[in-house]
Every structure is written in C-alpha cells, then in structure tokens.
Amino acid sequence: MKIKSLLESWKYASILLFGIGVSNVGDWIYLIALNLIVLDMTDSPLAVSILYILKPLATLFTNGWAGSVVDRLNKRNLMIVLDIFRAIFIAILPILPTVWAIYGLVFIINMASSMFEPTSMTYITKLIPREQRKRFNSFRSLIDSGGFLIGPAIAGLMFMNGTPFFAIYMTAIAIFISGLITTVMPNLEKQRVADIKESKLSLDLLKKDWQVVINFSKAHLFIMTIYFLFGCLMVMATAIDSLEAAFAKEVLSLTDSKYGFLVSIAGAGIIVGASVNTIFTKKISTSMLLGFGTLLVSVGYIIYAFSNTFIVAAIGFFVLSFFLAFANAGFHTFYQNNIPVDVMGRVGSVYGLIEAFLIIIVTTLFGFAAQLISIKVVVIIGTLMMLGVTLVMFVFNIQSFKSKVSSKKTSINS
Q: CB–CB of 382/320 below 8 Å?
C-alpha cells in the first residue's frame, strides 16, 4: 500500500523527469551537430564560437519581457508551444543556404529556450510538493548529467552512421516528443488562459513588472543576495570554461585525445556526484547543499587553475563536477521554496537578463586578458574571484539560511 502511494505521488514527477531527459539529450546532440555543420560550412573556429555568443544575446533580447508573459500565461500550454516551436525551427536548420541564415534561426531558437526556462521552473514548482522538491531536483541533476554523457555518445554514433544533418532531425524529433509528453501533464492553470488578454504587453506593463521585481528584491534582500551570488558563480564558471580548451593545450600541453579524456572525467564526476546526491539528499539540508556545494565547486576550479599536470587537472575537474550536482540541486530547491510562483517568471527572467549581460562582459574581458597577459594567470585570478563569491555564499547559508529561509514560519512560504 505504501509503495502504491509512493508511485502515485511520483507519477507526474516521473513523467516530467523523462521529458526533461529526452529534451536534454536532444539539446546535446543539437549543439554538437550544429558546431560541425557551421565548421564544415565556414572552416572557421571563430564562426563556431559565435554560436556560443548567440545564447546570452538571445537572453538579453528576451528576458526583459518574457517574465511578464510567463507569469500571465498557462505554463503547461506555453511549454508545449515552445517545444513544438523549437522542434520545427531546428528541423528547418539543415535546409538553410548560408551560415548567417543559420545564425538568425539559432538566435530565434535560443530566444524560445530562454523563455522556456522560467516557464518550466514555475510549472515544476507548482507541480512538485515542497517536501518532494529536493529529491526531485537531485534526480533532475542526475538526468542532466546523464545527458552530458549520453547526448555526445549518441551524437557520435549518429555521425558514424549518418551526417550532422541527420542528428539535427533526430534532435527536432526528440524535442517534439518532449512537447507531446508535456500534454499528458496536469493543467494546473486552466483559469490563466485569458489573463494575457486582460493585461496586454506594453511598455507600461513592463515597467510595472520590473518594479514588482525591484520591490520583491528589496523586501527579501537575503533571498535575492543568495540568488545573485549563485548567478555570479555561474558567470565566473562560464568565463573560465571559455578558456578551458586553450588552457589544456597551451598550459598543460595536452593532446586532443587527452583533452577529450579530461572532459570525460568531468562527466564522470557529474554522474557520481548526482548519484550520491540522490541517495543522501534527505539527510542533507538545502543550506548544506548550496553552501558546501558551491564552495567545493570553487575548490575544484582552484585545483584545476594551479595544475601543471594532467593528473592534478583531472582531480580538479572531478571535484568541481562532483559538487556541481549538489550545488545545482540545492539552488533549484532554494529557488522553488522561496520565490512565490506568481512572480517567479518575472524574477527569473530579470535576474537571468543580468546574468546574461555579465556573462558577455566577463567572458569578453577574460578573452582579451588571456591574450594580453597569460591564460594561466587569468584562470587563476578568475578562480580566486569565484572562491571569494562562494565563501560569501557559504557564510550566508551557514549563519542565516536556516533561520531566514528554510524555516516554515518564514512569511513568504506561510
């Protein structure tokens, strides 16, 4: 009877996790195939790097208004529409004649993805009960890390038996299937369909919504400080990761095969970390997941930054990826438990906009600094800055998190 009750309570969560897994694998296949297509068309690494700039640019163009739409529309229906929209546009990519046409369509696809993220987060928060969220996020971290390994592996098999274009079509099908899976999920907001008609998107509405985010941030300064610091951690990680290949080649003098093996070690670290997290998640508080998790991620980056050999770099990669699973699960649980669902889309979009802007600025600065100084010095400086951010997060979490956020008496969750 207890098992039957458990299965019933996890029915929709399991379906949702399966849909996330299918979409995640598809995203990895799409990314690798798209890189090869653009490289084949241009024979230029710079042309490929532009693909990575398009994502934060799309976020800049989207997140200023996306939250206003997300908070007023039916989340489940919007997720279905966005998945089908992305699937159709991805399927069109192989027939485009020029790389500029591909850039344009990829930009639009990335805009849809930027909108999908706060939509899915809000829907998940509504669907998953508070007491199940930490375990759900642990399983999600495991699925995401599985996609990191399975996606490229499937892409490799596809390239052996077909072409990158075939892989693109398979990605479109995978994302379309993810959209179909969402149709069997419960419709939690049947009454929200007409809300957007009552509040037409306008400059005045956007100003009011931005003010809502500002007021919420002022009223819940501790919560939003944690949120912002985690965003800074992701900004620093992205900037450091942008120099990863050059660091491996120029500082560690690794061959392509050894660099590939180094990346595989990171993938193994994510899988092991996520697996351990799913087993012990009930025994670890959200504050510990977030505080210790982020701190040890930065420690892994420090080990990597100061490495001079493959072995030391591999240890750093494993440590940072192992604890990234804990940090992500902790952050998602923190976010879901402390941002009200009625403003979650707007808060996530506005702070995502800020994060995207910082990613572009910091990554560009790191790139120029690596050219002017040295890659190793820049990576070391970046990791030390990251350590500073995570130390502040650690102190915030350990000293104040339980009393100000996790308590059931907190007014925001009452």
A: no
CB atoms within 10 A of CB 161: 7
Three-state SS annotation for 223-287: HHHHHHHHHHHHHHHHHHHCCHHHHHHHHCCCCHHHHHHHHHHHHHHHHHHHHHHHHHHHHCCHH
Q: Which residues of 205-240 are buried (b: 16+ CB within 10 A; e: fewer)?
A: eeeebbebbeebbeebeebbebbbbbbbbbbbbbbb
| Alpha helices by DSSP H, 71-129 | 75-92, 99-127
Q: Is the pTM of this model over 0.85?
A: no
Specify whether the CB–CB gap between 91 and 172 falls below 8 A: yes
pLDDT tens digit sequence for 33-60? 888 888 888 887 667 778 878 888 998 8
Whole-angstrom CA distances from 53 to 39, 171, 302 are 16, 21, 26
CA distance 381 to 264: 25
Which amino acid is located at 185 in the chain?
M
